[in-house]
Specification:
InterPro entries: NTF2-like_dom_sf, SnoaL-like. The protein has 134 residues and is α+β, with helices and mostly antiparallel strands. The protein contains three helices and six strands, in the order H-E-E-H-E-E-E-E-H. Strand 4 and strand 5 form a beta hairpin.
Length: 134
C-alpha cells in the first residue's frame, strides 16, 4: 500500500468508533504537535491515550481532508476535524484546522509533524473541501 493510501485510511476513520487505529502507528512512532496550547511530543502509548480519550468523550470524531500530497514516503494532509458529543448527538460541529506531515515506515505512520489552529468562523474555511483522489 502506498504511503498516501496508508495516511488516507487513517483520515477516513472515525476516531470515536474505530477500535484498531493504534495499529496504524509504528511502534517507534513520534508525533510533534504545535497547537494553541503549545508544543507537545507524543509517543505511541501517548497517542493511544489520546485516542481512548476521544472514544470516551465523543460520539463521532472525523476528518475532512482538503489536501493530501505524497512525496515518496512522506505525506502531507490539510483537514478540519468535526465532532458530535454525547450531549448533542445530532449536531456535528467543526473543531479545528490541521496540517500534518507523516513519514511512513514499514507500512505504518512513523514520524508526524502537526500544526493546528482553533476554528474560525469563516465560511470559506468550512466549504473549501473537496474529495481527495488517490
Amino acid at each position: 500500500m502506498s504511503a498516501k493510501k496508508i495516511v488516507k485510511a487513517f483520515y477516513d476513520s472515525n476516531l470515536a468508533k474505530d477500535e484498531n487505529l493504534i495499529d496504524m502507528f509504528h511502534n517507534d512512532c513520534v508525533l510533534h504537535w504545535n497547537s494553541s496550547q503549545g508544543f507537545t511530543t507524543l509517543n505511541k502509548s501517548e497517542i493511544e491515550e489520546k485516542l481512548n480519550g476521544v472514544k470516551e468523550s465523543y460520539l463521532s470524531f472525523t476528518y475532512r481532508l482538503s489536501h493530501l500530497l505524497e512525496d515518496d514516503n512522506i505525506v502531507t494532509a490539510r483537514y478540519t476535524i468535526y465532532y458530535t458529543t454525547i450531549e448533542r448527538p445530532l449536531k456535528e460541529e467543526p473543531l479545528a484546522h490541521f496540517i500534518s506531515i507523516w513519514e511512513i515506515k514499514d507500512g505504518k505512520m512513523y514520524k508526524g509533524y502537526e500544526i493546528s489552529q482553533k476554528l474560525d468562523e469563516s465560511v470559506e474555511n468550512l466549504t473549501s473541501f473537496s474529495k481527495i483522489k488517490i
